[in-house]
Amino acid sequence: MSAEQSPKIVIVDESPVRAAILEEGLREAGFTEVVHISEMQSLLARIYAVDPDIIVIDLENPSRDVLEAMFQVSRAVKRPIAMFVDQSDSASIQASVEAGVSAYIVDGLKKERIKPILDLCVSRFNAFAKLQEELERTKSQLEDRKIIERAKGILMKVKGLTEDEAYVLLRSTAMREKKKIGEIAQSIITASEMLK
Amino acid sequence: MTATLRIGFIPLVDAAALVVAVDKGFAAAEGLDVELVREVSWSNVRDKLNIGLFDAAHLLAPVAIASSLGLGHVKVPIAAPFNLGINGNAITVSPVLHAALMEEIDGDRFDPLVTAKALARVVAKRRKAGAEPLTFGMTFPFSTHNYQLRFWMAAAGVDPDEDVRLVVLPPPYMVDSLKSGHVDAFCVGAPWNSIAVDLGIGHILHFVSDILAHAAEKVLAVRQVWADTHPELVAALVRAAVKGAEFIEHPENRTEAARILAQPERIGVDAEVIQRTLDGRLKISPDGTFRESARYLLVGREGAGRPDPIQAAWLYAQMVRWGQAALTPDGVKTTMAVFGPEVYDAALGRRPPAQAPAAFGAFAGPAFDPDNILAHLEAFEVGRWKA
User: Fold this and answer.
1) Which residue among A135, B80, B105, B172 has the highest number of C-beta atoms inside a 10 angstrom radius?
2) Chain A residues whose beta carbon lies within 8 Å of the beta carbon of residue B74
């Protein structure tokens, strides 16, 4: 950061985790004035109160249309412009839309100062998406493990196998049928329930 | 050969022709494998269309024009080769405002000039009493809802920028905002007006067809560049949408169409509420009063699907009237080209109709002449085209 004052940045996001990731990143990059708004009810009033230079909003927030209006009809904000970065910079626009972030820049902030902020937001949004994905994967893995445990129990009881033998049987069947071990385990549970 | 298309839409009844075209297989019959993507805001639909994440979109007619003119956002020329709907909005007011209007009303309460005059008196009374100005919700700065509210109230001298507050609200928030008193009224498409009435918190004051008998509402939009490079896909899409619209307009298909639209991944509300809109028979008051109008929403009827450049010019005139756009000869030309009917005619192998398209049927003001927009606007008392 230069000697110029840090721009005021508002983050509008209903996800507290993503907002925290974003805020942390901006602060690390030296932007000291960052405010998070999660309440959509008094969105405009809060934005007026903060009077930001930049508003970063997640794309899936229905209140984006509300912000568009603020930038077009309101005279309370000083001649604002709404733009991703620059009309000519379509690669940046595409990257931010795909990542799910949109930025509104209030007039008066130099364009070259906007670019690094938006780039940072895009990479943070992508990091959050990856985190979500991993969380989903971990969840389904946990679910799989539970199912495998149950299937092992059934095999041990019905076929008189040890735990290790039951697992080997599950694994070899899965390999032979080119299926996931979780799927084989699920079919054992289903079958045993039907045969009850 | 099958082409894969991603098309964005907002969960509203006027996406009907598009949704039915996909879900009834009319698009597939044209060789199109369409993925419909439900969106939460018009800004999103516009941006995803503009950068090519969507091949086509259900779009507010004025947004297609604003995007082509570069108003409010990035300039991306848009083509609207099919008109998804004519009319379809309504103005709903809170029970308190309804009572206040009925107290001031002098004449037929379905006559918009009568209600607008009543509104002017309510506004004047509130000002005298030092009360907050009335707040009206609409969906987007470049929306028919915005222009319809303004057209209506300005006819009785109510200045929409000075005498009341006009605020943007996402359609799903309209009902809550009316309930909480955040707004006193709103103008929105279906099914949100009906939902407010069913909850007992709103009265439908007007169908917008009371204000303008024939006004373009939503379009099927594509990027002009994409249309130029994929003419056969655009033609196939138009034919599929026309079949969707024709299906809906057969009264015996309405129940099925409503059921298709009611699915959770489409509009996701009760099929019965959707059918009211398609039939033009709406409950307008919590006491159960129904009102019927064959003009509530036109999907395909009266040539509704064929793009009409004069409709585009009228929308541009509203942008000029309310200070959103400057009036230039180039602007008129660009705007009218957005609603060019050539692609539609060619796709269907039809000649242009001999009859001129239906007029707006505005309840106030002079007849609209796209060749003389300024003279048209100067006939109105309220507006900011000179600012």
Assistant:
1) B80
2) 83-84, 87, 93
